[in-house]
Protein 1
Amino acid sequence: MHCFCMWKSFIALLVLASPVLAQERPTAYQALRVVGTKLDRALVDHVISVRGMDGTPQPAKWTILLDDPKARGGVREVEVANDKIVSERTPMREAVAGSLGATIDTTKLNLDSSGAYTVAHQTAAVSHVTFASADYLLHVVERGNPVWRVTLNRANGDSAGLLSYGANPGTTTPTRRHLSWCD
C-alpha cells in the first residue's frame, strides 16, 4: 500500500513538472551559443535566420541557416535541440532561396525568443486572443534590422495571429501595421 502511494505521488509530481520542463527548452540565443561553441564562433556572425516551430513557449528544436562560402551551395543549415547539434546539412542555395537574406548583425540583437514570446503573449492577452503554440522566425528586413516574426497557433493548428517586431534596442513593441489577428 505504501508503495502505491509513492508511485501515485511520483506520477503527480511528473504531471506538475511537465509544464516547467517544457518552459526550460533552450531559447534562440542559447541555440546560437551552441553553434558558436560546438562548430565555430565565427559562424554566429553569418546567421541568415533562426527558426523554431511549435514553441510552448520555446520550441524543441531550432533551425539555423548560415551563410557559409565553404559549404556546398554556400549555405549551411544546423538544427539544435537540447543544447546539442542534432543535424547539419548543406542544402543547395536554390533549395533555400526563399529563406535567404542578409546576415544578422548580432550586435543589434536585444530580444531573445523568450522575450519575443512574452511580448506576443501579452499582446494576445490584451487582444483576447488565445493560442496553444508559437512559431518563431528571426531574420533581417530590408534596412538590415533583425526582426522577430511570431505566428501564434491554436490547438487545432489554425493560425491565431501574427506579430512582427524588431529584435534590436528601441523597436521591441509591435505596431498595429505589424500586428494581425486571424478570426
Protein 2
Amino acid sequence: MASVHRDRSSWAGWSAGSVSRSIDSGKWGILLIYTVTKGDTLEKISQDTQVPPEKIIYDNQLENGNRLVEGQALLLLKEGESGDYGTGLSVGGYAYPFVESAVLEQAFPALNELLVFSYGFTFEGELVPPPQDDQWIISAAWEQGTEPLLVLTPFSGGAFNNQLVKALVENQELQQKVIAQLFLTVRDKGYAGIDIDFEYVLPDNKEQYAEFVGGVRERFSPYGYRVSVAVAPKTSDSQSGILVEGLDYKLLGENADAVFLMTYEWGYTYGPPMAVAPLDKVRQVVEYALTRIPRDKIIMGIPNYGYDWPMPYERGLTRARTIGNVEAVNLAVENGAVIRYAQIAQSPWFTYTSAGMSHEVGFEAPRSIEAKLNLAREYALAGVGYWNLMRPFRANWLMLE
C-alpha cells in the first residue's frame, strides 16, 4: 500500500490559508476544532471553551501543553462528548502484525474492520504468511468488536511484483490452489474475510484480474466471508500510468463486496512537496468511481502520516522522511514553525530550518480529517479506510467514535 505514488498533475500547491482562530461545528457530527492564533495559551483556550486543559493535552497528544504554535488545530471535546463522525460510515484501517498494541488500542473504538497486512504467494501457488504471528492481532480485533480481514498482496522481495499477478491470473490451476489455501487460512485463523491488494497489474491482465477477484468471492461468500479489493486512484477510463491501466473499476466493483480507493500519495517519498491527499484530487477520484461502482461499495482511503522534505527539492535526489501526524505537530513546536492550511487541498503544512537545512512538511490534522470525512458523507460512501494504523493519532479516532 505505501509504495503507491502517481504521476503529477497541476494543482494549486500549498495555497496558504489564513491562520486564524476558528471554532468549527462539524456538518455531520458534534465537533469542535480550534485553530491556535499567535499568543494563545492552553489556559486561555480552556477558559474560552470550557474544555479542561488536561483533556486537551490528552486528546491531542500534546508533548508540552505550555507550547502551542500558530495554526495548530486542536480537537476540543468536553467530558463525555464524542466526535460522532463514524455514524453511518464503516471505518477500517491497515496494520502490520508488529503494530504496537497501545497504538492499536487507541483506534479500536472507532474501527469496524482491521485489515492485517499481509499474506503473499509464490509462483508455485504457495501462500506466504506475514513474518510476524498474526493470531494475536486477529484475537485482539474480535475482542474489541472489530472484524479482521486477511490482506493478500503479490509481494516478492519486499515489493509488488506484477509478474506474480500475471502468473496467477493466467493460470486457473494456480488460482484454485491459492484460493483453497486462502479459504483454509481465513477459516482456521478466524478472519472475517479477505482484502485483495494487487498493484501494478498489467493492462493485458485487467479482465483476468477482475475475474480472479470474482472467483475468490464466489468461494468465500457462501460462508459469510467478505471480499474487498484495493485500487489505485483513477479519474477516467482512459487514464494512463503503470498503477491504473490494469484496473477496471466497473468489473472490480461487480466482483467484490467493497472497493478501497487508495486516495493518497500525491505527495510521496520521492516527489516534490505537496499534500499527501489533496481534497480536490480525492474528490475527482471519488466522482469518477461513483460512475463505475455502487456508492455502497466504495471505501475512501485516508492517510495517517505525512512527509518531511529536505529543501530545495531535486528530482531523483530528494527523499522525504515519513512522519506521523502527531510527530509533525511536535516538529513544528520544536522549531517554532507557523502551521499553514492549504485551502484547495484542505491540508496543513509548514516549513522550518534545522542544522542549516530548510524543510517542508505536509501532514494530516483534525481540520483536514474533518474535510475528508465530510467528503465521504457528502457522497454517501460506504465508509473510509486508513493507511495505516501504525502511528498514533488519538484525535482522529475520537472524531470518529
Protein 3
Amino acid sequence: MRLDATQRAALIAIGYESIERGLRRGQFAPWPGPPSVAGLEVPAATFTTLHCDGELRGCCGALEARRPLAEDVWCHAWLSAFADSRFLPLAQHEFAALELQVSVLGPLVPLAAASERELLAALRPNEDGLVIQAGASRATFLPAVWEQLPDPVEFLRHLKIKAGWTAGDWPAGVRAFRYTTECFGAASRCAA
C-alpha cells in the first residue's frame, strides 16, 4: 500500500486526536467515524510508535488487518499512549513533546524456519519486519529495529527473548513470517 502525503498527514492527525481525546476523557474515546480523506477505509494492519524527548514512549499494533486503516491507527495510538505495559499511561504534560509514527504493514509472508540458521539465511536486514511464533508465544520486530540491532544474529536473539524464549532456544514447530512496512511521521523512527 502506498499512501500519498495527504493520507499520511490525515493518519498522523487521527493518531494525535485519539491520544488528545484520551487525555481529556481519561479513557478510550470511541472512533468518530471515517475521515474525509479517501483511501483510509481499506482494511490494514498498523503499529503506532510514540517517542517523547527522543525516547520510546509506547508502541502497539496488529499483525493482521482487522479494521479500516484510519480506525486501526485511532485504536493503536490510544493503546500506545495508555496501555503499553512497558510504560505508565501518558500524562498531559508529555503531550506537547510527543512524536507519533505510523507503520502500515504489508502482508505476512511465511519463511522457512526449520532451524535458526535457515531463518537467518532468509532474512533481509534493514528491510524485513519479522514475526516468530511457537505455540502460544509470538513476537515481532518492525523493520526499523534493524537500526538498533543491525546484526541478524543479534536481531533474532533479541526477538526470541521478546517472545519469552531464552537466547539459545529454538522450540519445535517454530513458524516465522516476514513483512515490510510503510513508515511515516515525526522523525520516522517507527520502532517497537
